[in-house]
UniProtKB/TrEMBL annotation:
Pfam families: Sigma70_r2. This is RNA polymerase subunit sigma-70. It comes from Sphingopyxis bauzanensis. One of its GO terms (biological process) is DNA-templated transcription initiation. One of its GO terms (molecular function) is sigma factor activity. Keywords: Sigma factor, Transcription, Transcription regulation.
Length: 173
């Protein structure tokens, strides 16, 4: 068991609230749309609330429930953004053979895209490639890199914004 000298009283208090209300919180997450992922989200909530130093919380249960609600909102936004992004970046029709000119323009644009991705920074570029090219999940990438899921999402948004601006340039030319 962890002694009170090793951790702050606030962290121990939050852990106690999480443990005492685990079933209630998991049900809340399920009802809010998490379904089978509620257990995983509870673990994410645990990590969010216990991994960083914090001061005393006057009403810990409402605090934890608000954090669980915010986690669900983040999940909803992420899922929605992912669906919108996938729709916007839909695959080109199969079986279409481009002309030589179109192929040349596409290769030039690909070089510009690769350069734009690189300019977003080493971490966002790496995250983007792991997610879109390697097919790794955002959660797996966060774990691999030792960063939060929201940081992965923010870095992906940065790359997507850069690519959207580049796409507008392509469309204008």
């Amino acid at each position: 068991m962890t002694s009170s000298h090793d951790r702050t009283d606030a962290a121990l208090g939050i852990e106690g609230v999480l443990l005492a209300n685990r079933d209630r919180i998991v049900r809340f997450l399920q009802v809010r749309g998490a379904g089978d992922a509620a257990e995983d989200l509870f673990q994410d909530l645990w990590m969010r609330l216990t991994d960083r130093p914090m001061g005393p919380v006057a009403d810990p249960l409402p605090y934890v429930m608000r954090a669980a609600n915010n986690l669900m909102l983040d999940r909803y936004r992420s899922t929605r953004q992912s669906a919108l992004r996938d729709h916007a970046w839909g695959e080109a029709a199969a079986g279409h053979e481009p002309s030589a000119e179109t192929a040349l323009i596409s290769r030039e644009q690909l070089l510009l895209v690769e350069s734009a991705i690189t300019r977003t920074g080493e971490r966002p570029a790496r995250i983007f490639r792991r997610f879109r090219v390697d097919g790794a999940s955002q959660r797996a990438i966060a774990s691999e890199m030792g960063i939060s899921l929201s940081t992965v999402e923010a870095d992906l948004r940065k790359v997507y914004a850069t690519l959207a601006a580049l796409r507008r340039q392509f469309d204008a030319s």
